[in-house]
Amino acid sequence: MYNPSESKLDTISWEDLEKEFPEITKSAVFHEAEKYVCENEIDKRYGQDAKEKFIEEYVQGFLQGVLEIRTEVIQNMSTYYSTEEIAKILDLSLEQVNAYLE
User: Fold this and answer.
1) CA–CA separation, 74 vs 94, rounded Å?
2) What is the chain's alpha carbon radius of gyration, rounded to the nearest angstrom?
3) Which of 5-9, 71-75, 91-95 has the lowest mean pLDDT?
4) How would you class 71 by CB atoms within 10 Å of its CB: exposed for 0-12, middle for 13-18, buried for 19 or more?
5) CB under 8 Å to 81, separation ≥6 — which residues?
6) Whose CA is closest to 29, among 62, 70, 67, 69?
7) Which residue has the higher pLDDT, 99 or 83?
């Protein structure tokens, strides 16, 4: 069975996401996925396994979108700020900033 607590990408954690965007919470994202499942009767049409897989993919897609936006922002910031300044502004480690700039 799908475990929501294990949902994260290696480069962005739920804790970082919620810290950076307080209005976005893990429960809100899962609620949106569940709402979509209910509205489109995915579990009734395709079964429980499809529902769980859909929710997993929905959440991963959401996190991937956030990651892409964050990468673009950091790359744009690098035009005006040093790596150290970006790390300080965004409260990230130098390693994290460098990962986005690669």
Assistant:
1) 12
2) 16
3) 5-9
4) middle
5) 89
6) 62
7) 83
DSSP structural state of residue 10: T
Instruction: Specify the 3-state DSSP secondary structure of 12.
Output: strand
| Buried b or exposed e, range 19-54, using 16+ CB within 10 angstroms | eeeeeeebeebbeebeeebeeeebbeeeeeeebbeb
Task: With 0.85 as the threshold, say if the pTM is over it.
Answer: no
Question: Residue type at 64?
Answer: Q
* The pair of three-digit structure tokens given for residue 32, joined into one six-digit string: 């949106």
pLDDT score for 9 = 44
